[in-house]
Structure formats: C-alpha cells, structure tokens
Design the sequence.
C-alpha cells in the first residue's frame, strides 16, 4: 500500500494520455463484451437445451415437412415418453422488421414437452378452447405492448397470403432468465383450416421427450431406423445439436466472433503496451534513480505492471459499465433480429479476466526492459 | 585521512585496492581506471577532479555499487562489494549510499516530502516514523517549509537541497555527489557546498564528490586528481575542520 501513491502519481503524470488509453480500453472491452453477449445469444439454444428432448426433422432439410401420422409411430418406440410437433409460421406483424418466431403447436403435449415455459392454467384453458388463440412470450408482449384479449393480425408469407387473426389468450414466462420469451404460439387446428390442401397433415418437426437422457442416443437411432427408406426419412438429434445446427444456418458465427474478438484483444494489447512502453522510455532516468537508491529490479517491474494493470482494470470497468448500460438499448434497437441479448455473469468474469490478461501482458515487456535497465547507462541519458 | 598509496589500514571506512575498469571499444580495451588504491576514513570529505573522460564518474559509480570493476576490490565498512550479487548490491546501496546527482534527478510528480521519503519506503519504518525522518532531513537542508512543493515549484538550488535531503534521510554510511553544483549559479553552488560542509562538520558524514570546479573542490578536505586512470593527491589539500558533530 505504501507504494500506491507512487503508482498513481506516475499514472496521473500525463492525464490526457491516461484518459485516452483508458477510453480505448473501455471501447475495446465494450465491443468484446458485446461480441461475447452475441455469441452467448446464439449459443443459448444449445446451452439451455434439455438433455431429455430430441428433435425429429426431415432428413433432407428442416424446411421439408413430415407426416402427422409419424406421431403415433414415434410414441410407440421404447424409451419415448411423449411427443409433440411444431411448424414454423413465419408471419409478419405490421412490418418485416418486427420479427419474432411464430410456431404452430400441438396444445395436447406442448406444456409437458416444454415444462420450463410457464403459462398460467386459466390462460392455457382459454387458449385450448379458442381456435384463433395465441400464447405470446413475455418479451414479445412487452415489445409490442400486447395484453390478454388483444387481437393480433399476422400476414402469412409461407402459407398463402392475407392476414391471419389471433386472440392473445395467454402470456408465457421462462423459468430461467435465459429462456426464450419471444415466441408466439398458435393452434394446430386453426393452422390446418387455413393452409393449402397440399400442406395439410404435415408438421415441420417433432419434439420428443425420452424417459431418460441416457437413452437419447438409442432412441434417436430407433426413430431414424423406423422411418428409413420411407418417403419421409428422419434425422433425429438432441435439442442442443438441433440448436447448434440452427445457428449454423446464419454462417460460422463462432468463427466470426472469435476472429473479431481476437483482433480486439490484440489491438488492446498494442494500445496499452505502446502506452506503457512510451511511459517507461520517458522515465528511464527516474527508473535509474529508483534503482540507484535501492529499489530492486523486481520492485521496478512491479511498478510498471501495477500501472499497466490499473489502466487495464479501469478501462475494463468502464467498458463493462458501458456494456451494462448499452446492451439493453442495443437489444431493443435490434428488434428481436438477434436472439435475446443477456449480459451474463460469465461475460463479466471473461471481461475482467481479459482486462487482467491484457494489463499483465502489455506491461510485461516494458516492465522487463525497466527491470534490466543498466543504472549507469540510464543515468547518462538524463 | 585519505590515502592513495594503499597504505591505509583495515579501519578505513572505504578501502579500494588494485581497482581497474576497462571498456571494450572498437575491438580494443580502454582502461579508464588502472590499479587504483584509495582509503577514506569516516568523516572525510574528498573531491575528485580531472579532465573529462578521466574516470571520475566511473570511480564514483564503482564506489556506489552502480557498476562493477574489471579487477580489484572495494570494501566499505567491512563489506566487500565487488563480488556481491545484483540483489545484494541493491540492498547494500539502500543501506549505505546516498546519491546526489548533477541534475538533481527528483521525481517530478512527487512533492519534496514524497521525494525525500522514497528511500524510506524500502525500510520497515511506520508512516509516522517516516514522516519524522523526512521532516528532520528537510529541516537539515532548510526546506521544512517547502515539503509540499513539487520540483517544478522550486529553484535549482532548492531542488538540489531536496536531493541532498533524499540522500541523507536513511542515514547512509557515505554520500556520493556527482557534480552537485554543476547545474547551479555561483550563489546557489556556494549554498549547496555550505550545506555539504555542514553535513561533514556537524553530522560527521563521509562525502565523496566529483567536480570540475576548483572553487568547489577547494571546500573539500582532500582533493584527488584523476588523470589517465591514475589517482594523484592534490598538492594543496584543504582541510575541513572537524568537531562539534551531531547525529542526524
């Protein structure tokens, strides 16, 4: 502690440079945190996937349907506890930018297969009785200011044209903060009445709950074997694999984010390292005096590293604070075009560790230079 | 008593024997100091004079443990420093040597008080004890009322006084002054020399000083000339009166 005054006095000797360096660090760390949040958002489907849920889709592609008749056959396979089915609706609410995912669901088993998405019983009963009923995720309801009883028109884009009308009968919430609360559920029966005849009785995909997660691989193989060589062969995978393959459709998000993150990290390293190198070079004579009067090489290294760490941690703190303030605003501005952006504790820890690593790494080379300084030569340069 | 013929006894505070310092330059060896002997007793005030490149500062650096000799030994208060490891030498410097540089070399972002406190940060003294020592040192150099001033707020002479306070605050065995008045006007130089004389006379400090200025050298007890790496005692040494010494 007795050296803290010395460290801060040195840091504050060039206030503008200090502010600019901390500012660069904060901006870079904000970008770093934002990228981490986006990566988490894309990975969330896989992260929160239930281990006992399987997704069964057409072997050719998810856009190819499966017959409704498969439901009973799947249910008969040993190890299958229950089965439900979904279709992607893909409607537009007022404007294309108002995107949110809309699913045609099977009310009979939806709540049992997705128990983490909670709908109050009374609201659910109203929905079951209402062919034009809809259950809306809390975030989407909040986004558009919808409440129970509202009538919502969605313009069909895949299944013909024209508006489909829905009544908001209920609002669901996720049990966990990271659960997706943006979905819009509609009735299978209502959907069947309106789709073109060629598409009737066809589902987008099945969601299966198995008795035990340990049995998931065997059940997956059994389902695919059951429909092998049929006109609608299946591809069954765990929910996490399904979520991961869904993300892949956007391109190699992980590579993109890691690449940008790496560039940000190294830019940060160069900016802070350059600042520390200049700062040490400017103080060559002073460092020589420190060493002459008895400060050890290690103490000199400690001073440089401590200064570098203070810059990094201050920049990191400001950057993460910016992220806390800006990410909810950005999430709203993105209008649901990306999965829900959540600044999780793990992003904070990652940001803090990144700041720490950059602080240490950027101070290390200048610090070692200062440590190895020859007093006699350095004093001559004053 | 200062001797350059190697006749000093084991009681000398500083004992130098057969000191050589050579540098490799352009494939050849340049001998800056050659077979140098020196004995300095406690309380001596020695000035080293000589032309540029004669090895004055090199000798001071070797005596202060800032550089290592090519050959020979340096013993200070019984400690042979020439074979100490880097870390040991650093610790030794902190305990035994007070440095005063021509350009003062104060830390510009620290106040006079904080500059003087620096060597004490390496000790186990409490904050209150450090404050007491710093106030005493600044009192000795006559700057008790300037302790919260930054170097830029002080004159050159005052800056050098702060540097002297920093050199004496940890009560080192001896002071090494490299051209302490080289950057000062005559009046300030006189004041600094009066202060160094006071440290020798009143507080019994041992001072070794390099200077180009004969007027400054004349105030030392002994003046030694360095020429071509050899040390020669001046024909007319000036004695600093001893007596009435105090401990800082």
Sequence:
């Amino acid at each position: 502690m007795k050296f803290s005054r010395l460290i801060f006095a040195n840091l504050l000797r060039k206030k503008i440079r200090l502010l600019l360096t901390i500012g660069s660090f904060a901006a870079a760390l904000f970008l770093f945190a934002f990228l981490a949040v986006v990566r988490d958002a894309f990975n969330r489907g896989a992260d929160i996937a239930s281990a006992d849920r399987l997704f069964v889709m057409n072997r050719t592609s998810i856009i190819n349907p499966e017959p409704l008749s498969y439901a009973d056959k799947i249910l008969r396979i040993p190890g299958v506890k229950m089965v439900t089915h979904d279709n992607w609706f893909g409607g537009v609410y007022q404007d294309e930018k108002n995107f949110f995912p809309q699913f045609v669901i099977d009310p009979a088993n939806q709540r049992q297969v997705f128990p983490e998405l909670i709908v109050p019983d009374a609201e659910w009963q109203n929905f079951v009785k209402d062919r034009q009923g809809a259950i809306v995720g809390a975030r989407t309801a909040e986004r558009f200011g919808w409440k129970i009883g509202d009538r919502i028109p969605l313009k069909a884009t895949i299944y013909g044209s024209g508006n489909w009308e829905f009544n908001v009968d209920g609002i669901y919430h996720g049990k966990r903060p990271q659960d997706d609360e943006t979905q819009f559920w509609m009735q299978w029966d209502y959907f069947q009445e309106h789709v073109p005849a060629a598409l009737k009785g066809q589902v987008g995909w099945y969601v299966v709950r198995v008795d035990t997660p340990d049995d998931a691989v065997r059940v997956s193989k059994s389902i695919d074997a059951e429909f092998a060589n049929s006109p609608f062969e299946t591809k069954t995978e765990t929910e996490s694999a399904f979520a991961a393959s869904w993300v892949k459709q956007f391109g190699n998000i992980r590579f993109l984010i890691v690449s940008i993150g790496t560039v940000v990290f190294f830019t940060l390293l160069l900016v802070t390292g350059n600042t520390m190198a200049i700062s040490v070079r400017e103080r060559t004579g002073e460092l020589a005096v420190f060493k002459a009067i008895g400060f050890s090489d290690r103490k000199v290294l400690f001073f440089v590293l401590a200064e570098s760490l203070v810059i990094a941690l201050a920049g990191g703190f400001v950057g993460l604070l910016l992220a806390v303030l800006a990410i909810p605003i950005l999430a709203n501005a993105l209008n649901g075009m990306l999965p829900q952006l959540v600044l999780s504790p793990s992003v904070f820890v990652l940001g803090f560790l990144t700041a720490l690593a950059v602080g240490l790494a950027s101070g290390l080379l200048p610090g070692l230079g200062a440590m190895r300084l020859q007093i006699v030569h350095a004093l001559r340069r004053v | 008593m200062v001797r350059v013929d190697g006749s000093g006894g084991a009681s000398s505070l500083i004992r130098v024997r057969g000191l050589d310092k050579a540098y490799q330059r352009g494939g050849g060896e340049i001998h800056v100091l050659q077979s140098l002997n020196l004995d300095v007793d406690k309380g001596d005030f020695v000035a080293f004079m000589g032309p540029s490149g004669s090895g004055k500062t090199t000798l001071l650096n070797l005596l202060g443990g800032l550089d290592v000799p090519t050959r020979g030994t340096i013993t200070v208060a019984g400690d042979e420093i020439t074979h100490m490891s880097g870390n040991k030498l650093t610790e030794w410097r902190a305990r035994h040597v007070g440095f005063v540089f021509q350009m003062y070399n104060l830390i510009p972002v620290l106040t006079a008080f904080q500059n003087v406190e620096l060597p004490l940060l390496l000790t186990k003294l409490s904050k209150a004890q450090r404050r007491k020592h710093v106030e005493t040192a600044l009192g000795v150099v006559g700057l008790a009322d300037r302790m919260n001033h930054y170097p830029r707020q002080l004159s050159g002479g005052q800056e050098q006084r702060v540097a002297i306070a920093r050199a004496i605050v940890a009560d080192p065995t001896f002071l090494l002054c490299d051209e302490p008045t080289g950057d000062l006007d005559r009046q300030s130089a006189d004041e600094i020399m009066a202060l160094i004389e006071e440290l020798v006379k009143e507080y019994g400090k041992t001072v070794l000083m390099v200077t180009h200025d004969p007027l400054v050298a004349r105030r030392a007890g002994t003046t030694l000339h360095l020429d071509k790496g050899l040390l020669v005692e001046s024909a007319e040494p000036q004695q600093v009166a001893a007596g009435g010494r105090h401990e800082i």
Observations:
- Chain A touches chain B at residues 2-3, 5-6, 9-10, 12-13, 285-286, 289-297, 375-376, 379, 382 (CB under 8 Å).
- Chain A has two domains: 4-45+252-380, 60-232.
- Chain A is about 55% helix and 15% strand.
- The mean pLDDT of chain A is 89.
